[in-house]
């Protein structure tokens, strides 16, 4: 207690508790004000009840004694903040020579933990020049990671912490893992351990404790955080291999998790790096034995473009690439291949996807874009749409595989596709025309002036008319209401509902015009009385090749294609190639599986019986 204060206590003018607090603001003492920061008391007057304090950046500040006692806290002479007042040069030298010790000293003065913002505020400027701080901080973090004395958080919202007690580096790493609050942070902590496995390999007890901790996290997190769990197990297995200390037999295994959670695996790992995804998919043979090909094929549509690239590598490495190619070709022919898989096929058309890339890919792309456009919810095929614009050679490569009828049909669909605005349509069609000049009439107007009659079956014509009727009576009026409701929500520039409804309006009106045009030039028929002297609309053609394989194709109306029934439109590549041919003639038809033209001989032509 300060001598002057002791006299007041002895005289009974103040009690001992007040005397103790009063002594903490005596001359020579250090204190901290939330407003002024750290300061040193240089003088006081107990009679006038004033205190004079030298704050950092503002000396000689005279303040009311009672206010100082109530609004400041006492600082020890060795507190970091107190040292900044008179020992700033020593702290600056310490920052250069031992940044870990500087950080530890600062944290000790704040109860061993601080927010990163508060930590940086104490150092940036006063101790380390602002211009040098970023470089200093990068080096300091590396030194802290090596020493393990200070835990620097990965997220800025977490605290920077001074470890308590004397831990070995290995114990400190495991402590970081155990202290992590979620699986994502735990995975980062475990990765740090794996990178410095030499520190922990000497302590098998600690290593097995870590194995047990990982297993406990896996059991807790599999249901809700499957992706994080799988990543945690991958890192654990890599660490175990590097440490040459096997994981206990009873511990969770990646293959077991994949087998039990198979339907969720591809979605759970979609955000992982390509390397991590490859490691997960590589465990399918272990998880499913001889059935791994079928199981891995089952995730192709869900894996995304990046995941599919890794799956293709696995099939190729294990000699099963033909099975994957066959699956993709069939999916493309059925127009069922998803947008991510189509992106992969297009990007890899000169490499891994060369045996899959065909003229059918163009129709499959347009199908995906149109289907996604009319579906509810956010657009999923935006990247596929962007690919058509960004890949300058894609359209040329696609139409280069088509015959003239296919190229013209593709160009027509492209121009009518509601996904693209008029400027984009013209730009894309320019590429098509450059590759196939025969399609120029689609843009020049010559094609529009030629009204070509469409021969169609009565059922297909009725379906088109029913669709048109529903558009006019139901969907377009409902869309008009949706636009009105969405407009009432406010600012149209940021009104998603309004934009979505207007996009749908464009599609509906475009589809209405298309249906009106098609139905107006369609002529219905039941295909009776077809001339079977040669291949005509409404005939069944029996074919045979040199190997003795037989095949039967039915040539029907413009809207009657059905691959499952081997029905083709007379406007299709196969239909156009067969028209007017006679028994005994040889025709060339493209094999959808291989993309190659094959020779067939016409053995028989019969009338189609509905």
Tell me what the structure shows:
This protein has 610 residues and is an alpha+beta fold. The protein contains 31 helices and 15 strands. Among the domains are: 76 residues, SH3 type barrels (Roll), CATH 2.30.30; 80 residues, Arc Repressor Mutant, subunit A; 72 residues, Helix Hairpins (Orthogonal Bundle), CATH 1.10.287; 69 residues, Transcription elongation factor, GreA/GreB, C-terminal domain (Chitinase A, domain 3). Helices cover 55% and strands 13% of the residues. A 5-stranded antiparallel β-sheet has the order 4-3-2-1-5. Helix 9 packs antiparallel against helix 10 and helix 21 runs antiparallel to helix 22. The radius of gyration is 38 Å and the shape is elongated. The mean pLDDT is 88.
What is the element layout, followed by pairings?
Elements: H1 3-10, H2 16-23, E1 30-33, E2 37-45, E3 50-55, E4 58-64, H3 65-71, E5 72-75, H4 80-86, H5 88-97, H6 99-108, E6 113-115, H7 116-123, H8 130-147, E7 150-151, E8 159-162, H9 169-179, H10 183-195, H11 197-200, H12 204-221, H13 226-243, H14 254-260, H15 262-268, H16 274-281, H17 284-288, H18 292-297, H19 304-317, H20 321-333, H21 339-347, H22 360-374, H23 382-390, H24 394-399, H25 404-416, H26 422-435, H27 441-444, H28 446-449, E9 454-457, H29 458-487, H30 496-520, E10 522-525, E11 539-544, E12 550-556, E13 567-569, H31 573-578, E14 586-590, E15 597-607
Parallel strand pairs: 9-10, 12-13
Antiparallel strand pairs: 1-2, 1-5, 2-3, 3-4, 6-8, 7-8, 11-12, 11-15, 14-15
Helix pairs in contact: 1-2, 5-6, 9-10, 10-13, 12-13, 16-19, 19-20, 19-21, 21-22, 25-26, 29-30
């Amino acid at each position: 207690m300060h001598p002057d204060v002791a006299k007041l206590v002895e005289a009974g003018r103040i009690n001992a508790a007040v005397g103790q607090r009063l002594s903490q603001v005596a001359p020579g003492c250090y204190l901290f004000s939330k407003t002024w920061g750290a300061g040193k008391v240089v003088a006081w007057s107990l009679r006038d009840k004033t205190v004079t304090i030298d704050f950092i950046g503002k000396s000689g500040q005279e303040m009311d004694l009672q206010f100082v006692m109530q609004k400041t806290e006492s600082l020890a002479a060795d507190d970091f903040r107190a040292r900044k007042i008179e020992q700033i040069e020593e702290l600056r030298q310490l920052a250069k020579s031992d940044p870990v010790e500087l950080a530890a000293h600062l944290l000790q003065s704040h109860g061993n933990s601080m927010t990163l913002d508060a930590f940086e505020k104490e150092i940036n400027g006063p101790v380390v020049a602002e211009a040098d701080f970023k470089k200093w901080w990068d080096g300091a973090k590396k030194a802290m990671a090596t020493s393990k004395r200070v835990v620097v958080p990965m997220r800025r919202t977490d605290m920077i912490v001074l470890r308590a007690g004397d831990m070995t580096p290995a114990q400190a790493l495991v402590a970081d893992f155990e202290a992590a609050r979620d699986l994502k942070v735990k995975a980062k902590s475990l990765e740090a351990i794996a990178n410095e496995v030499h520190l922990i390999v000497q302590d098998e007890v600690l290593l097995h404790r870590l194995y047990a901790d990982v297993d406990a996290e896996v059991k807790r997190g599999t249901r809700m955080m499957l992706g994080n769990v799988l990543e945690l197990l991958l890192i654990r297995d890599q660490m175990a291999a590097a440490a040459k200390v096997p994981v206990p037999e009873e511990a969770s295994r990646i293959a077991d998790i994949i087998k039990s959670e198979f339907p969720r695996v591809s979605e759970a790992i979609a955000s992982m790096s390509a390397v991590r995804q490859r490691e997960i998919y590589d465990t399918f043979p272990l998880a499913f034995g001889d059935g791994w090909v079928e199981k891995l094929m089952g995730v192709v549509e869900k894996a995304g473009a990046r995941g599919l690239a890794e799956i293709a590598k696995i099939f190729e490495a294990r000699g099963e690439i033909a099975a994957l190619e066959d699956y993709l070709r069939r999916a493309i022919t059925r127009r069922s291949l998803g947008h991510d898989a189509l992106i992969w096929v297009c990007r890899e058309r000169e490499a891994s996807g060369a045996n899959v890339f065909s003229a059918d890919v163009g129709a499959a792309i347009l199908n995906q874009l149109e289907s996604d456009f009319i579906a509810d919810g956010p657009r999923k095929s935006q990247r596929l749409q962007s690919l058509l614009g960004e890949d300058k050679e894609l359209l040329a490569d696609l139409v280069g595989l088509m015959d003239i009828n296919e190229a013209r049909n593709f160009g027509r669909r492209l121009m009518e596709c509601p996904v693209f605005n008029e400027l984009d349509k013209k730009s894309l069609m320019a590429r098509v025309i450059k590759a196939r000049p025969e399609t120029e009439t689609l843009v020049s107007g010559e094609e529009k002036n030629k009204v070509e009659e469409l021969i169609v079956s009565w059922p297909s014509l009725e379906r088109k008319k029913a669709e048109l009727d529903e558009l006019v009576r139901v969907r377009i009026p409902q869309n008009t209401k949706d636009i009105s409701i969405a407009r009432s929500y406010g600012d149209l520039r940021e009104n998603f509902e309004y934009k979505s409804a207007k996009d749908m309006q464009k599609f509906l009106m475009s589809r209405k015009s298309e249906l009106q045009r098609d139905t107006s030039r369609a002529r219905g028929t039941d295909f009776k009385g077809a001339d079977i002297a040669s291949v005509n609309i409404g005939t069944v053609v029996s074919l045979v090749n040199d190997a003795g394989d037989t095949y039967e194709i039915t040539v029907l109306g413009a809207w009657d294609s059905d691959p499952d029934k081997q029905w083709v439109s007379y406007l299709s590549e196969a239909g156009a190639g067969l028209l007017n041919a006679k028994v005994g003639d040889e025709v060339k038809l493209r094999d959808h599986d291989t993309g190659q033209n094959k020779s067939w001989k016409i053995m028989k032509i019969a009338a189609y019986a509905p």
